[in-house]
From TrEMBL:
<dbReference type="InterPro" id="IPR003029">
    <property type="entry name" value="S1_domain"/>
</dbReference>
<dbReference type="InterPro" id="IPR012340">
    <property type="entry name" value="NA-bd_OB-fold"/>
</dbReference>
<feature type="domain" description="S1 motif">
    <location>
        <begin position="78"/>
        <end position="159"/>
    </location>
</feature>
<dbReference type="Pfam" id="PF23459">
    <property type="entry name" value="S1_RRP5"/>
</dbReference>
<dbReference type="GO" id="GO:0003723">
    <property type="term" value="F:RNA binding"/>
</dbReference>
<dbReference type="InterPro" id="IPR057302">
    <property type="entry name" value="Rrp5_S1"/>
</dbReference>
<dbReference type="InterPro" id="IPR045209">
    <property type="entry name" value="Rrp5"/>
</dbReference>
<feature type="region of interest" description="Disordered">
    <location>
        <begin position="1"/>
        <end position="51"/>
    </location>
</feature>
<dbReference type="GO" id="GO:0032040">
    <property type="term" value="C:small-subunit processome"/>
</dbReference>
<protein>
    <recommendedName>
        <fullName>S1 motif domain-containing protein</fullName>
    </recommendedName>
</protein>
<dbReference type="GO" id="GO:0006364">
    <property type="term" value="P:rRNA processing"/>
</dbReference>
<feature type="compositionally biased region" description="Polar residues">
    <location>
        <begin position="15"/>
        <end position="25"/>
    </location>
</feature>
Length: 353
Protein backbone atom coordinates (compact mmCIF):
# COMPACT_ATOMS: atom_id res chain seq x y z
CA UNK A 1 0.00 0.00 0.00
CA UNK A 2 1.68 3.11 -1.24
CA UNK A 3 0.23 5.53 1.33
CA UNK A 4 0.87 3.60 4.54
CA UNK A 5 2.57 6.57 6.15
CA UNK A 6 -0.56 8.72 5.80
CA UNK A 7 -2.56 6.01 7.51
CA UNK A 8 -0.13 5.40 10.32
CA UNK A 9 2.04 8.42 11.23
CA UNK A 10 4.73 7.95 13.83
CA UNK A 11 7.38 10.04 15.53
CA UNK A 12 7.18 13.35 17.34
CA UNK A 13 6.39 13.92 21.00
CA UNK A 14 3.56 12.09 22.67
CA UNK A 15 0.46 14.15 23.62
CA UNK A 16 -1.23 13.79 26.99
CA UNK A 17 -4.63 13.79 25.31
CA UNK A 18 -5.65 12.59 21.88
CA UNK A 19 -8.75 13.44 19.86
CA UNK A 20 -9.66 12.09 16.45
CA UNK A 21 -11.88 13.92 14.03
CA UNK A 22 -13.18 12.71 10.69
CA UNK A 23 -11.81 14.41 7.61
CA UNK A 24 -10.64 13.50 4.14
CA UNK A 25 -7.72 11.60 5.66
CA UNK A 26 -9.37 10.18 8.75
CA UNK A 27 -6.47 7.85 9.49
CA UNK A 28 -4.11 10.82 9.63
CA UNK A 29 -2.22 12.37 12.55
CA UNK A 30 -4.02 13.10 15.85
CA UNK A 31 -4.45 16.63 17.08
CA UNK A 32 -1.77 17.62 19.54
CA UNK A 33 -2.57 19.12 22.90
CA UNK A 34 -0.27 20.00 25.75
CA UNK A 35 3.04 18.19 25.37
CA UNK A 36 4.89 16.43 28.11
CA UNK A 37 7.96 14.23 28.21
CA UNK A 38 7.28 10.59 29.06
CA UNK A 39 9.55 7.70 29.83
CA UNK A 40 9.59 5.14 27.02
CA UNK A 41 7.35 2.17 27.77
CA UNK A 42 8.67 -1.35 27.74
CA UNK A 43 7.23 -3.33 24.85
CA UNK A 44 5.05 -6.30 25.61
CA UNK A 45 5.79 -9.85 24.49
CA UNK A 46 3.27 -9.57 21.66
CA UNK A 47 4.42 -6.21 20.35
CA UNK A 48 5.44 -6.79 16.74
CA UNK A 49 6.86 -3.29 16.22
CA UNK A 50 3.62 -1.67 15.04
CA UNK A 51 2.20 -0.93 18.51
CA UNK A 52 1.91 2.71 19.50
CA UNK A 53 2.46 4.43 22.84
CA UNK A 54 0.25 7.36 21.82
CA UNK A 55 -3.24 7.95 23.19
CA UNK A 56 -4.79 7.94 26.63
CA UNK A 57 -3.98 5.35 29.24
CA UNK A 58 -7.45 3.84 28.85
CA UNK A 59 -6.91 3.35 25.11
CA UNK A 60 -3.39 2.05 25.69
CA UNK A 61 -4.66 -0.57 28.15
CA UNK A 62 -7.23 -1.92 25.71
CA UNK A 63 -4.77 -1.64 22.85
CA UNK A 64 -1.97 -3.54 24.61
CA UNK A 65 -4.32 -6.29 25.76
CA UNK A 66 -6.36 -6.73 22.60
CA UNK A 67 -4.81 -5.34 19.45
CA UNK A 68 -1.60 -7.28 19.02
CA UNK A 69 -1.54 -10.40 16.93
CA UNK A 70 -0.62 -14.02 17.34
CA UNK A 71 2.74 -15.28 18.50
CA UNK A 72 4.25 -18.68 19.22
CA UNK A 73 3.37 -18.05 22.88
CA UNK A 74 -0.30 -17.20 22.32
CA UNK A 75 -1.26 -19.57 19.50
CA UNK A 76 -3.22 -22.56 20.78
CA UNK A 77 -4.07 -26.05 19.57
CA UNK A 78 -7.47 -26.06 17.87
CA UNK A 79 -7.16 -22.51 16.52
CA UNK A 80 -8.26 -21.91 12.92
CA UNK A 81 -5.99 -19.60 10.88
CA UNK A 82 -5.79 -18.30 7.31
CA UNK A 83 -2.34 -19.09 5.85
CA UNK A 84 -0.46 -18.92 2.56
CA UNK A 85 1.58 -21.70 1.00
CA UNK A 86 5.27 -20.82 1.20
CA UNK A 87 6.88 -23.92 -0.30
CA UNK A 88 6.01 -27.52 -1.16
CA UNK A 89 8.25 -30.44 -0.23
CA UNK A 90 7.88 -34.13 -1.00
CA UNK A 91 5.97 -35.04 2.17
CA UNK A 92 4.81 -31.71 3.60
CA UNK A 93 3.73 -28.17 2.81
CA UNK A 94 5.34 -25.15 4.50
CA UNK A 95 2.92 -22.28 5.11
CA UNK A 96 3.20 -18.71 6.35
CA UNK A 97 0.86 -17.68 9.16
CA UNK A 98 0.01 -14.11 10.18
CA UNK A 99 2.51 -12.31 12.43
CA UNK A 100 5.53 -13.86 10.72
CA UNK A 101 5.03 -17.42 11.93
CA UNK A 102 5.74 -20.60 9.98
CA UNK A 103 4.00 -23.98 10.16
CA UNK A 104 3.88 -27.27 8.29
CA UNK A 105 1.12 -29.50 6.88
CA UNK A 106 2.06 -33.15 6.54
CA UNK A 107 0.74 -35.13 3.56
CA UNK A 108 -1.44 -37.16 5.93
CA UNK A 109 -3.24 -33.96 7.01
CA UNK A 110 -4.39 -32.84 3.55
CA UNK A 111 -7.68 -34.76 3.25
CA UNK A 112 -9.27 -38.11 4.03
CA UNK A 113 -9.75 -38.94 0.30
CA UNK A 114 -6.03 -38.31 -0.23
CA UNK A 115 -5.13 -40.61 2.66
CA UNK A 116 -7.27 -43.37 1.13
CA UNK A 117 -5.55 -42.82 -2.21
CA UNK A 118 -2.11 -43.06 -0.59
CA UNK A 119 -3.13 -46.27 1.16
CA UNK A 120 -4.36 -47.76 -2.12
CA UNK A 121 -1.09 -46.77 -3.79
CA UNK A 122 0.97 -48.46 -1.07
CA UNK A 123 -1.14 -51.63 -1.47
CA UNK A 124 -0.72 -51.60 -5.29
CA UNK A 125 -4.43 -50.99 -5.82
CA UNK A 126 -3.82 -47.86 -7.88
CA UNK A 127 -0.92 -46.50 -9.87
CA UNK A 128 -2.10 -42.91 -9.82
CA UNK A 129 -1.54 -40.52 -6.92
CA UNK A 130 -0.98 -36.79 -7.06
CA UNK A 131 2.19 -35.25 -5.67
CA UNK A 132 1.76 -32.37 -3.25
CA UNK A 133 3.22 -29.91 -5.78
CA UNK A 134 0.40 -30.88 -8.14
CA UNK A 135 -2.20 -30.07 -5.49
CA UNK A 136 -0.82 -26.83 -4.04
CA UNK A 137 0.97 -23.76 -5.35
CA UNK A 138 3.11 -21.12 -3.60
CA UNK A 139 0.96 -18.12 -2.64
CA UNK A 140 -2.22 -20.17 -2.38
CA UNK A 141 -4.46 -19.30 0.59
CA UNK A 142 -5.55 -22.16 2.84
CA UNK A 143 -7.51 -22.41 6.08
CA UNK A 144 -5.76 -24.58 8.67
CA UNK A 145 -6.37 -25.97 12.13
CA UNK A 146 -3.50 -26.00 14.61
CA UNK A 147 -2.95 -29.61 15.70
CA UNK A 148 0.19 -29.21 17.78
CA UNK A 149 2.32 -26.39 19.16
CA UNK A 150 5.85 -27.27 20.26
CA UNK A 151 8.16 -24.31 20.84
CA UNK A 152 8.56 -22.75 17.38
CA UNK A 153 7.12 -25.76 15.55
CA UNK A 154 3.47 -25.73 14.44
CA UNK A 155 1.77 -28.83 13.05
CA UNK A 156 -1.27 -27.88 10.96
CA UNK A 157 -4.08 -29.51 9.01
CA UNK A 158 -6.25 -28.49 6.03
CA UNK A 159 -8.50 -31.56 6.31
CA UNK A 160 -12.16 -30.47 5.98
CA UNK A 161 -13.21 -32.44 9.06
CA UNK A 162 -10.64 -30.52 11.09
CA UNK A 163 -11.47 -27.07 9.69
CA UNK A 164 -15.27 -27.44 9.25
CA UNK A 165 -15.98 -30.28 11.69
CA UNK A 166 -17.72 -28.17 14.35
CA UNK A 167 -20.29 -26.80 11.92
CA UNK A 168 -23.88 -28.06 11.73
CA UNK A 169 -26.49 -28.26 8.96
CA UNK A 170 -28.00 -24.98 10.17
CA UNK A 171 -24.69 -23.21 9.57
CA UNK A 172 -24.65 -24.12 5.88
CA UNK A 173 -26.21 -21.00 4.37
CA UNK A 174 -26.13 -19.77 0.77
CA UNK A 175 -22.94 -17.87 0.00
CA UNK A 176 -21.00 -19.37 2.91
CA UNK A 177 -17.32 -20.14 2.25
CA UNK A 178 -15.96 -23.65 2.83
CA UNK A 179 -12.79 -25.60 2.23
CA UNK A 180 -13.66 -28.95 0.61
CA UNK A 181 -11.83 -32.02 -0.69
CA UNK A 182 -12.61 -34.03 -3.84
CA UNK A 183 -13.89 -37.49 -2.84
CA UNK A 184 -14.65 -38.80 -6.33
CA UNK A 185 -14.90 -37.62 -9.93
CA UNK A 186 -18.30 -38.24 -11.57
CA UNK A 187 -19.68 -37.62 -15.08
CA UNK A 188 -21.36 -34.34 -14.20
CA UNK A 189 -19.24 -33.14 -11.32
CA UNK A 190 -17.43 -34.00 -8.13
CA UNK A 191 -18.54 -35.56 -4.87
CA UNK A 192 -16.95 -33.37 -2.20
CA UNK A 193 -15.97 -33.95 1.41
CA UNK A 194 -16.79 -30.82 3.45
CA UNK A 195 -16.20 -32.43 6.85
CA UNK A 196 -19.63 -31.53 8.26
CA UNK A 197 -21.27 -34.60 9.83
CA UNK A 198 -24.41 -35.91 8.12
CA UNK A 199 -23.97 -34.02 4.84
CA UNK A 200 -23.37 -34.89 1.20
CA UNK A 201 -21.77 -32.24 -0.99
CA UNK A 202 -21.69 -32.03 -4.79
CA UNK A 203 -19.78 -29.66 -7.05
CA UNK A 204 -21.33 -29.59 -10.57
CA UNK A 205 -18.85 -29.23 -13.42
CA UNK A 206 -20.91 -26.26 -14.64
CA UNK A 207 -19.95 -24.45 -11.41
CA UNK A 208 -16.21 -25.15 -11.43
CA UNK A 209 -13.33 -22.81 -12.07
CA UNK A 210 -12.02 -23.61 -15.59
CA UNK A 211 -8.48 -22.69 -14.51
CA UNK A 212 -8.39 -25.56 -11.99
CA UNK A 213 -8.04 -29.25 -12.79
CA UNK A 214 -9.58 -31.04 -9.83
CA UNK A 215 -8.75 -34.62 -8.89
CA UNK A 216 -9.34 -36.99 -5.99
CA UNK A 217 -7.79 -35.79 -2.74
CA UNK A 218 -7.36 -32.16 -3.78
CA UNK A 219 -8.53 -29.40 -1.45
CA UNK A 220 -10.18 -26.26 -2.83
CA UNK A 221 -12.29 -23.33 -1.73
CA UNK A 222 -16.02 -23.55 -2.40
CA UNK A 223 -19.04 -21.35 -1.84
CA UNK A 224 -22.44 -22.83 -0.99
CA UNK A 225 -24.72 -22.42 -4.01
CA UNK A 226 -27.70 -24.31 -2.58
CA UNK A 227 -27.87 -25.24 1.14
CA UNK A 228 -29.77 -28.27 2.48
CA UNK A 229 -33.54 -27.78 2.44
CA UNK A 230 -36.74 -29.74 3.05
CA UNK A 231 -35.06 -32.40 5.16
CA UNK A 232 -32.33 -32.98 2.57
CA UNK A 233 -28.67 -33.19 3.58
CA UNK A 234 -27.29 -32.43 0.10
CA UNK A 235 -25.21 -29.27 -0.33
CA UNK A 236 -24.53 -27.88 -3.81
CA UNK A 237 -21.25 -26.02 -4.18
CA UNK A 238 -19.46 -23.70 -6.58
CA UNK A 239 -15.76 -22.93 -6.84
CA UNK A 240 -16.03 -20.35 -9.61
CA UNK A 241 -13.81 -17.36 -8.84
CA UNK A 242 -16.76 -14.96 -8.86
CA UNK A 243 -18.62 -17.13 -6.33
CA UNK A 244 -15.62 -17.09 -3.98
CA UNK A 245 -15.22 -13.33 -4.35
CA UNK A 246 -18.90 -12.75 -3.54
CA UNK A 247 -19.10 -15.20 -0.65
CA UNK A 248 -20.42 -13.55 2.51
CA UNK A 249 -21.03 -14.64 6.10
CA UNK A 250 -24.24 -12.87 7.11
CA UNK A 251 -24.43 -14.09 10.70
CA UNK A 252 -22.41 -15.95 13.31
CA UNK A 253 -22.28 -19.71 13.10
CA UNK A 254 -22.76 -22.09 16.01
CA UNK A 255 -19.13 -23.22 15.68
CA UNK A 256 -15.85 -21.37 15.10
CA UNK A 257 -15.69 -18.84 12.27
CA UNK A 258 -13.94 -20.22 9.19
CA UNK A 259 -10.80 -18.28 8.15
CA UNK A 260 -11.30 -16.57 4.81
CA UNK A 261 -14.96 -15.80 5.57
CA UNK A 262 -16.12 -12.43 4.27
CA UNK A 263 -17.80 -10.32 6.98
CA UNK A 264 -19.10 -6.76 7.36
CA UNK A 265 -16.65 -4.63 9.37
CA UNK A 266 -17.77 -1.26 10.76
CA UNK A 267 -14.89 1.22 11.20
CA UNK A 268 -14.79 2.69 14.74
CA UNK A 269 -11.32 4.00 15.65
CA UNK A 270 -8.01 4.65 13.86
CA UNK A 271 -4.95 3.17 15.57
CA UNK A 272 -1.28 3.62 14.83
CA UNK A 273 -1.03 -0.02 13.81
CA UNK A 274 -4.38 -0.41 12.09
CA UNK A 275 -8.12 0.03 12.56
CA UNK A 276 -10.50 -0.94 15.35
CA UNK A 277 -14.10 -1.73 14.48
CA UNK A 278 -16.84 -4.24 15.09
CA UNK A 279 -18.52 -7.17 13.36
CA UNK A 280 -21.84 -8.94 13.91
CA UNK A 281 -23.23 -5.90 15.68
CA UNK A 282 -21.20 -5.82 18.89
CA UNK A 283 -18.03 -7.90 18.51
CA UNK A 284 -14.83 -5.82 18.57
CA UNK A 285 -12.50 -6.67 15.66
CA UNK A 286 -9.21 -5.37 14.28
CA UNK A 287 -7.50 -4.84 10.95
CA UNK A 288 -3.76 -4.55 11.52
CA UNK A 289 -1.63 -2.14 9.53
CA UNK A 290 -0.18 -4.69 7.11
CA UNK A 291 -3.68 -5.94 6.28
CA UNK A 292 -5.33 -2.54 5.76
CA UNK A 293 -6.13 -1.41 2.25
CA UNK A 294 -8.13 1.19 0.38
CA UNK A 295 -11.79 0.54 -0.51
CA UNK A 296 -12.48 1.22 -4.20
CA UNK A 297 -9.44 3.50 -4.26
CA UNK A 298 -10.50 5.50 -1.18
CA UNK A 299 -9.46 5.35 2.46
CA UNK A 300 -12.17 4.07 4.82
CA UNK A 301 -14.13 6.63 6.84
CA UNK A 302 -15.41 6.50 10.41
CA UNK A 303 -18.62 4.50 10.58
CA UNK A 304 -18.13 3.06 7.09
CA UNK A 305 -19.13 -0.55 6.48
CA UNK A 306 -16.45 -2.47 4.59
CA UNK A 307 -15.83 -6.13 3.83
CA UNK A 308 -13.00 -7.97 5.53
CA UNK A 309 -11.77 -11.57 5.39
CA UNK A 310 -11.23 -13.38 8.67
CA UNK A 311 -7.61 -14.24 9.48
CA UNK A 312 -8.16 -15.78 12.92
CA UNK A 313 -9.94 -15.22 16.22
CA UNK A 314 -7.49 -14.26 18.99
CA UNK A 315 -7.83 -17.10 21.53
CA UNK A 316 -7.23 -15.03 24.67
CA UNK A 317 -10.00 -12.50 24.04
CA UNK A 318 -12.12 -14.17 21.33
CA UNK A 319 -11.35 -11.14 19.12
CA UNK A 320 -11.49 -11.47 15.31
CA UNK A 321 -8.58 -10.16 13.24
CA UNK A 322 -9.35 -9.41 9.59
CA UNK A 323 -7.62 -8.56 6.34
CA UNK A 324 -8.91 -6.12 3.73
CA UNK A 325 -6.81 -7.81 1.05
CA UNK A 326 -8.62 -9.54 -1.81
CA UNK A 327 -7.49 -13.13 -1.29
CA UNK A 328 -9.48 -14.32 -4.32
CA UNK A 329 -8.27 -11.70 -6.77
CA UNK A 330 -6.98 -14.50 -9.01
CA UNK A 331 -6.98 -18.28 -9.09
CA UNK A 332 -3.20 -18.51 -8.81
CA UNK A 333 -1.55 -15.49 -7.12
CA UNK A 334 1.68 -14.22 -8.68
CA UNK A 335 4.10 -13.94 -5.78
CA UNK A 336 6.80 -12.31 -7.93
CA UNK A 337 4.39 -9.51 -8.82
CA UNK A 338 3.41 -9.07 -5.16
CA UNK A 339 7.01 -8.96 -3.95
CA UNK A 340 7.97 -5.29 -4.14
CA UNK A 341 11.43 -5.81 -2.64
CA UNK A 342 13.89 -8.20 -4.27
CA UNK A 343 16.56 -10.30 -2.56
CA UNK A 344 19.72 -8.26 -2.07
CA UNK A 345 18.03 -4.93 -2.77
CA UNK A 346 19.35 -1.99 -0.72
CA UNK A 347 16.69 0.12 1.01
CA UNK A 348 17.62 3.78 1.23
CA UNK A 349 16.61 5.70 4.38
CA UNK A 350 14.82 2.69 5.89
CA UNK A 351 13.03 3.31 9.19
CA UNK A 352 13.24 0.93 12.15
CA UNK A 353 9.82 0.25 13.65
Amino acid sequence: MADNEEYFPRGGKKPTTTHFKQNANFLGAPEKGEKKKKKPKKKSEGDDGYLSDEGTKEVDLSFKNCAFGLSYKTIKEGLLVLCRVKSILETKIIVSLPCRMIGSIMACHVSEPYNKLLEAYVNDKTDKVLDLNEMFRPGQYVAVKVLEVKDLSLMLSVMPQHVNGQMTLKDLQKGYLLQAAVSSVEDHGYVMDIGVPGTTAFLPKTNTNPEMQLDVGMVCWCSIKAPPSGGSTVVTLSNELSALQNSWLRQKTSGPLIPGSNVDFIVDTPLDNGIEGHVFGDTTAYVQRQHADSVKGKKPALGQKIRGRLLYVMPTRNTPFLTMKNIFESTFPDLDAEQKLKDGQIIEEAQVC
